Amino acid sequence: MIYLFSVIVSIVTAGLETVSYLGFVKNHFFISAYTIYFISIVMILFAGQYSKIIKKISLAISCLISTIYVLLIFLESITYPNYIYTHFHINPLSFKFLIIMLWFHTMIINKSKFAKSLLLAILILLGVDGAGRTLGIMYLGIKDITAAPLATYPEKMTKVYPGFYPAMQAIIKLTPPDSTILIPPQGSPWDKEGNAAFMTYFLYPRTVKNLFEGDTIVDYAHTNYYVLISHGVTSMFNSSNMFEYGWPKIAIKAKQMWKINLDSNTIDTYYRDFNPQTDQWDWGLIEVSYE
Amino acid sequence: MNSFIAIITTSTFFILSGWYLACLVPTVSKVERIGLSFLIGSGMTTFIWFIGYLIGLPFNLFNLGLSGLLLGIIGFTLLKILKITPTTEKIVIHTKFEKYLISIIILSLIISFAIAIYHPLTAWDSLAQYDFRGHAIAIDHDLSFIRGGAYFMSYPLMISLVHATVYMLGGISAQGIHALIFAAFIAIIYGRMTDWTNSKYGILTSLLIIFQSEIFSHSTFAYTNLPYTAFLVAAIMYIISAGSYSILIGGMLLGLSTWVRSSEVFWITGTVLILWQGIRTKKISKAMIAIFMIMAIRLTWSMYQNYIYSSLNWVTSSTASHFNIESLYKIVKTIKSIYWYIYLNIIFPYINVWFLSISAAIVIFTRRTYRSLMLIFSIMFSAAMVVGGIMVFSTYYQSWNEIGDSARRMILFIVPLSITAAVYSLYLINKKDSK
């Protein structure tokens, strides 16, 4: 009887901390939840024979609570971190203790020995926790597939990198493979287009080089040199006027230049020099004149 | 569709080229043999392809074909010399429930493949490193561009060469091959666990590993952590298996793990296991051959890497060169930060797994078998190496505490290893209880 009492106390403790927060029991009852769990584990020394009904009830409760846990973790996986706590005020970390306590004692009640009960309880926790999260990944992946099963690779890339990917495709069409593309300096607001390694992935075998502020284009005025025109991307990190958008910031003598219009999917060609004051385009390219 | 055909063709080629070497483990199920052939084939064929490049042959499909053929001939000759006649073990499924669980395993692997092949390749390290190198090799047929930058030389070429194969065959994205590496790994896990215990435990282990989100998610994008985990854990499992030549297969897989990622030091764990197993089973010569294979694969890459680094005047820093008093002082000074780094990136993300390992260790120390001891030793030794490695790393890598995500991915292999050890312990308990 004393064992069952300790089991109920430990389950209630884990339950309380699940719907409140880790440390709730210590704050209100002056005894740590971990101490209560430990005592309930020690109390297995007094565990006796239990009727079939108690065995079945404990098993049913454990299965039910575990199923709820899987569903909650699944919901969090397909929404956002902390979704469970925000919507249900349930603390997933404390919930893990509830699962372990429930299964551990269910095993003990069902005549399993200490080591086996502990091992099974943690294995079940690992299984339900992993299943909830993995099912979430599967759901999100399948959702993408079913939303556009016949999407082409460029369409999918454009969805991930809107603006950037179509602009890169346009640049590939406009430049020969042995050309060099001069890109903005690395950093906001050119997080992607200023990253040479990232740009190289999309433009290879073209050579990609950073054109730094203060550089003069004369240094680069050779055959097959092009300068990327990029306004820079407004993101949550640079939405204020922290940066002066628009690149390049210097006038460049050009053979020709192209304005890439992603909305209309067209490219306008201009045979004049680049003027940073007037040519404030989202995307474009300058073929450097070396005359 | 192009990617699908290219990935299936590449995988079939790897399976065929690694088939005879996989027969060194003579009695296994067809599923395990295919999984093992795929890992050996993909690793060894790309390695021979690389050796070919070193002696002046370009990276093209013809030379890849020759590499596969050579691997097949080596495997076939070995089988003849060693007089091994491979037999296929039938998979015995006892209940309808087991059949149902196997269907879930297969379905999950199909979903992993579908997600990987459908989604574009966008993971950062893939774009900047592994997949980019694959594209560059497929375009240039050599390493001319890659050799020009120390950054591109920081990882061995295996995964990039596998990607290059897919691109040479006309594929657009090689990401799907990572899901197939995952499937091969699960086939090996199932096969080994079934061999050590029975089908029930094999299914349980496979299911638990598939349903670990950290592992499953890695099968859907093109990082090297999952392939590394597959080679390392499969190696450990073969090293501690009973077959005559399992230790050789284990050594080969362990060597190939360094062909996927060379900066990690967990090959030392496997090497200690090989020595232990070699002494225990009195197979010292086989253990030595296994260790030779590890060193041959590892040193080939690291020597080439160092050669390129020196030609670029790139100064590298090895962990071993930092074992000194000054480092010790630095460690003591930053011990609190190191503690929090380990807690937040190594312990907390895998808290369930560490608890599992501890409870498995409790069981194993009371029901000792050599295999269970080796499993728990692998976990503990690797954990100790992680802690020690982070301590030393913190003394010379300035932004060490900013790359916690990498540390978290580095220890990914602990998940399948702990699950295997725990399920094996469960088997030991049940076996004893049923006596």
Briefly, what is this?
The complex is a heterodimer of chains A (291) and B (435). By secondary structure, chain A is α/β, with parallel strands linked by helices.
Topology of helices and strands:
The complex is a heterodimer of chains A (291) and B (435).
Chain A: H1 2-19, H2 24-29, H3 33-42, H4 52-78, H5 83-88, H6 92-109, H7 114-147, H8 153-160, H9 164-174, E1 180-183, H10 196-203, E2 207-210, E3 225-230, E4 254-261, E5 266-270, E6 283-288
Parallel strand pairs in A: 1-2, 1-3
Antiparallel strand pairs in A: 3-6, 4-5, 4-6
Helix pairs in contact in A: 1-3, 1-6, 4-6, 4-7, 6-7
Chain B: H1 2-22, E1 27-29, H2 30-54, H3 61-81, E2 87-89, H4 96-118, H5 124-140, H6 158-168, H7 176-196, H8 199-210, H9 213-218, H10 225-239, H11 246-260, H12 267-280, H13 284-311, H14 325-333, H15 335-347, H16 351-366, H17 370-396, H18 404-410, H19 414-434
Parallel strand pairs in B: 1-2
